[in-house]
């Protein structure tokens, strides 16, 4: 990557869920552009969008995954069916069918892009096996870093 957050482009592809909302706010705080591609009706929280704009964030909302992936330094996704939404599984699988991070989308991203997912992943749904196991994936490093952050938080709270 370029080494700094400013000037980076994060392409979020999938559900405008809590992880997406956090990515939007984090991007605004560090000066990173974010392009969020969701199916119609699955957009991020309006309050989060408004707050990111207030913070000076560079945010684009689209329903086109290729727009989000085009030139992105980071491609990020999460599950299509979150806990508590299991009764919506069939509908969500139809609605999100074109929002999978696959090799085709990676080809549109920057040559040195990385792939992120907060896990657990449903392989073959929001991300392909080849992508999550591929050379650009930092998914498992991301999970390891989360472990250390959680340990530090527990130490602070209980120590």
Write a brief structural summary:
The chain is an alpha/beta fold and 159 residues long. It has helices at 18-30, 46-54, 65-69, 89-95, 103-108, 129-132, 139-158; strands at 9-13, 33-37, 59-62, 74-77, 114-117.
Describe this structure in words.
- This protein is α/β, with parallel strands linked by helices.
- It has a single domain, classed as Aspartate/ornithine carbamoyltransferase (Rossmann fold), CATH 3.40.50.
- It has helices at residues 18-30, 46-54, 65-69, 89-95, 103-108, 129-132, 139-158; strands spanning 9-13, 33-37, 59-62, 74-77, 114-117.
- Strands 3-2-1-4-5 form a five-stranded parallel beta sheet.
- Helix 1 (18-30) packs parallel to helix 2 (46-54).
- The mean pLDDT is 96.
- Belongs to the aspartate/ornithine carbamoyltransferase superfamily.
- GO terms for molecular function: amino acid binding; ornithine carbamoyltransferase activity.
- It is an enzyme of class 2 (transferase).
- It catalyses: carbamoyl phosphate + L-ornithine = L-citrulline + phosphate + H(+).
- Its EC number is 2.1.3.3.
């Amino acid at each position: 990557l370029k080494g700094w957050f400013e000037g980076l482009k994060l392409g979020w592809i999938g559900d405008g869920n809590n992880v997406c909302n956090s990515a939007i706010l984090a991007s605004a705080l560090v000066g990173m552009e974010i392009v969020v591609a969701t199916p119609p009706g699955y957009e991020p929280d309006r309050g989060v969008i408004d707050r990111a704009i207030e913070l000076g964030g560079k945010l684009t909302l689209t329903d086109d995954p290729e727009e989000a992936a085009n030139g992105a330094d980071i491609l990020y996704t999460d599950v299509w069916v979150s806990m508590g939404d299991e009764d919506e599984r069939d509908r969500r699988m139809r609605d999100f069918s074109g929002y999978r991070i696959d090799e085709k989308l990676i080809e549109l991203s920057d040559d040195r892009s990385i792939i992120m997912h907060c896990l657990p992943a449903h392989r073959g749904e929001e991300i392909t096996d080849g992508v999550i196991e591929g050379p650009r994936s930092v998914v498992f490093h991301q999970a390891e870093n989360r472990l250390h952050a959680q340990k530090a938080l527990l130490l602070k709270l209980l120590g």
